[in-house]
């Protein structure tokens, strides 16, 4: 009997010791220059009634009601939301720092629990305002081992929020992007001629045009059209290191030392990015969030991929259109008995 009690007690102590190795601290910084006067930007931040259009934690619940309390622009002013799978959280204005800084507290219960202090540091610069949005916090004890992952997700939240805020205030279409959620589609099987890419996620958009041009030339020299829409298939992505092992390809039969990649027929959740390709990392993150919110189960056997709908591809262009495909498992009603 003593041994039976010892084993679970030992496992609990071992687990606590393992979790104790991680601090659970969160540290995120995003900096951007917005072409907006400092006072205009500050007024936007101090009134939570204006946050609905760009709050990154309400990306998937823009039309949902929120609870406002306190007086706009005064410490104690708060914005709270409880939107089911979209999340539960509260943002509170805590301190005003003269004309250049705003402090807030952020508490989230869903989709994961954490508390943080967030600060907006504003500086007038030629052409607008330099914004430094920082977040310092800690996840709950049970999430300590995943703190780095949570930190990466929060970095994408802050980046997306600043992009939304810029689109709201700057009216500069050449820098704006939009993400549209298109829902579930049935996709046919496809064969592609590819080249490998291994490296930083941020460098992938710049690598695609050259690889695609070379693939098309090689396929056309071999008597194939080589003119289908280019794509990138993500074989393995390291979120924390922001690196990926993927294949860049075009529809066709591989020639020479090209790689042949086969995409099987499957169901996928589809979203579309319109704008500069620097936003692709954020778009993928929002797509994964959408699967969670809609309770859809990803099919990890099939790599996700993106298809570039416009050619020629210019990574910095506001006219890019890219569809992202997240493979899903068949619904129980779709399975044969």
TrEMBL record:
This is SRPBCC family protein. Transmembrane segments: none annotated. It comes from Paucibacter sediminis. SUPFAM superfamilies: Bet v1-like, Probable bacterial effector-binding domain. Pfam families: Polyketide_cyc2 (PF10604). The lineage of its organism: Bacteria, Pseudomonadati, Pseudomonadota, Betaproteobacteria, Burkholderiales. InterPro entries: Polyketide_cyclase/dehydratase, Reg_factor_effector_dom_sf, START-like_dom_sf.
């Amino acid at each position: 009997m003593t041994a039976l009690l010892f084993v679970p007690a030992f496992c609990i102590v071992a687990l606590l010791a393992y979790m104790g190795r991680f601090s659970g601290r969160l540290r995120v910084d995003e900096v951007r220059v917005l072409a907006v006067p400092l006072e205009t930007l500050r007024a936007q931040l101090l009134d939570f009634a204006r946050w609905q259009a760009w709050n990154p934690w309400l990306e998937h619940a823009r039309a949902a009601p929120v609870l406002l309390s306190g007086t706009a622009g005064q410490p104690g002013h708060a914005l709270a939301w409880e939107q089911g799978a979209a999340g539960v959280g509260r943002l509170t204005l805590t301190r005003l720092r003269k004309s250049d800084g705003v402090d807030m507290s952020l508490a989230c219960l869903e989709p994961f629990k954490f508390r943080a202090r967030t600060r907006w540091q504003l500086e007038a610069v030629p052409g607008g305002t330099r914004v430094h949005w920082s977040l310092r916090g800690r996840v709950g004890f049970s999430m300590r081992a995943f703190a780095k992952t949570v930190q990466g997700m929060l970095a994408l939240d802050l980046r997306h929020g600043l992009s939304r805020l810029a689109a709201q205030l700057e009216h500069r279409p050449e820098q704006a992007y939009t993400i549209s959620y298109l829902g579930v589609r049935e996709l046919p099987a496809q064969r592609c001629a590819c080249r490998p890419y291994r490296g930083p996620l941020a460098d992938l958009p710049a690598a695609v045009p050259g690889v695609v041009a070379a693939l098309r030339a090689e396929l056309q020299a071999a008597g194939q059209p080589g003119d289908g829409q280019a794509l990138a298939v993500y074989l393995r992505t390291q979120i924390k290191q922001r690196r990926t092992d993927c294949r860049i390809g075009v529809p066709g039969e591989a020639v020479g030392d090209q790689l042949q990649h086969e995409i099987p027929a499957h169901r996928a959740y589809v979203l579309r990015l319109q704008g500069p390709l620097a936003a692709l990392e954020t778009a993928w993150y929002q797509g994964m969030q959408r699967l969670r919110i809609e309770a859809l189960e990803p099919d990890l056997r099939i790599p996700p991929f993106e298809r570039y709908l416009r050619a020629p591809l210019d990574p910095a262009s506001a006219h890019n259109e890219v569809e992202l495909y997240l493979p899903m498992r068949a619904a129980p009603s779709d399975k044969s008995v």
